[in-house]
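Researcher: I'm comparing several assemblies side by side, and this is the next one on my list. It has 1276 residues spread over two chains. Same procedure as the others: predict the full complex and return the structure.
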Amino acid sequence: MHIRKYDAGFSRRQFLERTAKGVVAAGVLQPLWPLIANAQDTAKAYPEELQSIDAYTKGKIKTGDIVDAGNVDIVKDLLDPITFKQIKEMGRRIKIVKTATDPLVLNSNKYLEATVRNAGKAKLDGAGNVVTQDGKRWIGGNPFPNAKTGEEVYANLSLSWGRNDVGFYALRDCDISPSGEIAYKYDFCWVEQNVAGLTSDPNKPYLEGFDDMLRFQTVFFSSPNDVRGTSFLSNHFYDQSKFPDLFGYLPAFKRERRFPTNQRFEPLVPGLTLFLSDAWHAGDPMLTWGNYKIVDTKPHLAAAGSNWHGDRPGWEPEVHGGPKGISFYEYEYELKPEVLVIDSEPTGYPRAPVGKRRTYVDVRNMQGLVSNTYDRRGELWKLVEAPYGRYERNGKTVKDGNGEVVWSVQSCMAHDIQSNRLSRFYMAEEIGGGYKPSWNSGNLYEQFLTIQAIRRLGSS
Amino acid sequence: MQNFSYRLSHAIMNNRGISILVIALITAFFGWGCRNVELKTIFSDLLPAEHPFVETFKDHPNFGNPLTVTIMVKRTDGDIYNVETLQKIWNLTRDVDLAPAVDHDQVISISTEKVRYAEATPYGIDTQPVMGDSAPKSAADIEEFKRRVDMAPLARRFYISQDGTATIITATFIERLLDYGQTFEYLQGIVEKARDGQHEVHMAGMPALTGWVYRYQQQMIGIFAITGIALILCLVLYMRNLAGVLSPLVTSVVTAIWGFGFVGWLGLAIEPLIMVVPLLLVARSFSHCVQFTERYYEIYLHVGNRRKAAEIALSVMMAPSVLGIFTDVAGLLLIAVAPIPAMERFAVFCGWWAAMLVPANVFLSPLVLSFLPPPKNVRQITGADGDHGLHAAIKRFLGHVATLTYGRAARVTTVVFLIITGVSTYEFLQMKVGNPVEGSNILKEDGEFNTAVAAINRSFPGVNTLEIVLEAKNQTNPDRVARQAETIAIMAKLQYLIEHMDNPPRASLSFADYLPEANRLFAGGNPKWSPLDPTNEATGAAVGAVMLGTSPKAFLHVTDFEQQNATVSLWYKDNKQETVDHALAQVRKAVEMVGADHPAFTIRLATGTIALQQSINDTVAHYEYIILGALNLVILIGCALAYRSITAGFFLLIPVNLANLYLGAVMVELGIGLDVNTLPIASIGIGVGIDYGIYLLSRICEEYQATKRYDHAIRAAIMTTGKAIFFTASIVAVGILPWYFLSDLKFLADMGLLLVMVMTINMVLAIVVVPLMVWLFKPHFVTRDDLLVGESIDLSQYTEGRALEQAELKPMAAAQ
């Protein structure tokens, strides 16, 4: 039955009213968080118009349809400006799929368990860092599942980037030039080890011996030959006002290089459009940015969790669009019923070329969907988009070290629309050097996340 | 009399309504096309498309930094190492990053994180920006800043002047997003704001140059208004009646609509730099109309009927007018022979406009006149009541001039002209190709832009570069050619060879320059590790060190984004022709020594300001004479057919070519060389200037039939048609000369001055040399009465109109 009161206009009015009053309360028909906490379907929190593109567009676009330049205007208000521009002007297309509503599909299981388990235990201390009520480092999951402010939303994004304690991501990258050709190709590994807020074991929220740290993270390149062994190590402090230490290693010289700690707006290697600052929509410690503000609450079209292509050779997604037909990944999109739009500014970087970052966050799992950065003139500059979801498709699954189906990032596109250069990379089954992805499979610190480790990687 | 022109005139005047309707419909069509008209400077279109240097430039547009703006801050009472100046540089750099269309990755100054120093420490290579997270605020901060600058050799060489008093900020723009006018106005605003008693701030670079041109477009509108008013004032003073003023105005406006509408429909951008030529065409339209109107008045006086007078005037003036316009069109269209896209568009636009003077001036003019009330002062204008005032003065003056062209005086005049011609020939042979100023020849030498270029040249390697391009044979070579040992070695060798020749360039730079320092630092810091091993492995390692954590955009001035192609940049002290010749000779010799062909790449000459200037000079030198030769041939054929005499063709060509010769001599005296600014002048000068000769020669032929005496014919022609020529030349000068005095665009000022000069010389030669030659050679064609261009007509057959004339003129006399 269609309850007329709860049409799209009702939802929109309610979202507008909330944003205007600065009130954030997820859910329209009923509060969202109790449903998630009880592992109930989130669909109960929203009217049909916010979960079905058919209903929202009054049948102009249906689930299963392709949105391209011909019909994207119908859903313009559901897209971020750069995605809209890509579809309208650059030949990108998206396929609309049914909106996922099961909290167990929307989250990494262990992470969701921790979020539920630790709900209400987090607070921001005087400096703005997340601590437990007794002042200790965070103990896992989203610290603010029912976030009320921009800072709280960003705390959810910043403390655990990948929503897994340990991630070893094997990524295959193509950097596309303005003419639509591949300018650079790389295989690289992104290794991420959280040392606080761990979720695999409820009794061990911290990795011992790293009291003032949040995570260690390494990027190392395995192909092509001219960059093989080149690596970067970032040590992130728990104090989110501190810049991470950043080291680079060049195997040819067997020597590491220390970078300026605030050099966050440069590519690691030639051709990459993704900068350290862009990663996970929260690449920099959250307190080195400021002026967080929730500027909108709205339904939004964004990548669904079904964009892992384990049924394709090497897990490689199909591509399309752009001048040569290879610019964009084929993504499945779904209508997210409630998305928070957060603005923030790089207040800790006096030389930052970025004026503002606008991030779209799904309130149901507090996961960043897409972000647009604007330059200091307020002109649109860059898009970072990364679908997350379960690694299961057509009967194929990948499991992590806890025996759970992996829930993780699946691919990423970073598009500088001013210079029209785009980097896209996907989680590959295997990359050059024989590296394969893994999740929560033991401690990677000694193997990948120290200066000695990156030296070893370079010489192997 | 029942010839084609008579029948056509009769048909047009008998169907005035339809004729006006057709012209109105055509005008509406082109008027609609005017909405697409775009005034736009495309600098690459000012370059000759087929020249090898231009092809190199187009294949490698990044080399030579055409989209880069350089802003220099100079402390006038000391060096830059003080809190105030460094804060100013910090602020200015942040403001530049706010410029529209700026590439944020390519804003570089000593305050950005891209200018770094590096030092080897026990913990690895530490690279940090030379300036911290804010401008230095104390003496200690400044000392630390100086220490860091000392450890950044390339920064010291390219971003801080040797004497430490100046520093530069460079910003590169994204062409796709760049609106030159908007970006320039923003940058100029912050530059002006940054200037004070202790700081000079200068801005140079192609976007700034284009911005200045755009800014002067506003000025151009003002000059257009001034010249328009001056032209109308001339008409009013000369004609003193409504028909005489309104007819040229209407026809000129219609022609302008057709001209602009045509390019609007074609979608061709109009180059604002050549807008002086359309103004010349307006002046030409005025002058054609004035000549026609004067003839119309003469006939009207006889026949006393406006429609009939217009019809007769049309039939007698059609052939000489069409021939005169044909030569204008030929002169303008032939400019397209030079393969410079801007000149090709110019030729199409102006050639079409000139061609439209035929329907507008020849056909519309009589239609308009036939509708307008008869002038009250027709007897005064035609001199029927004897000449008064200005008209009489001009006639008296021309009567004196006429005496120089026949009889005994003719010999003296001949000798004088022979001497002038001899001297001019000598001077002409001294003419140089190229017209270099420091900066851009489009703008005045003492203008703000060229002053900026000169200032930057004094403190830094400068803006006059010659780029030698190392181009990959396979643009998708997986080994990336610019990173290979041989490529790097050849770059370095070229630099070494050229720097050890006589008069070497001020500075040179290539990707190879960045590698030894990286090699040294990453190998532990000892200077002995600076040289690279000549292997791909060692070179690749050094390249990896340089590129680590950096965008390839930071090196786009030396190697492209994909690192397949590279350039060796050479900075020379100026762009004078001798420097250009010397630089090119040096480079050719060096390339010959290292060989142009290598397994993975080819060495291509050349791009950069020096090479591009030379490409224009080569083209101008080559095509100037081809255009003139073709134009002479076309005009010779046209005139020979019209006068049915090849002698007549030569007769008319001699004065216009003499005019060109004299103009060349004047240019040598004024120190102006042949360049793209002057390329169209000679062609337009001949095409337009020959009109005067045609009109005068036709009148001599006509007058000869009356008296069969050369001296009488010459005198009568000079005092009648010569007067019209005098007026029309004056009106052209009034239309164009203000550009010389008022335009800050040197390009327009030069063109304006040279056009006025060539038209004035043409006028003098038409009035003096054409009759002089007729007197000296007494050609047979003058005696014939069957010339296509003859203006003669027996008006006695229209004498029945006298009654009407008297009836129409009586009220006029009463009114006077």
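Model: For your comparison table: Residues 167 and 439 of chain A are 5 Å apart (CA to CA).
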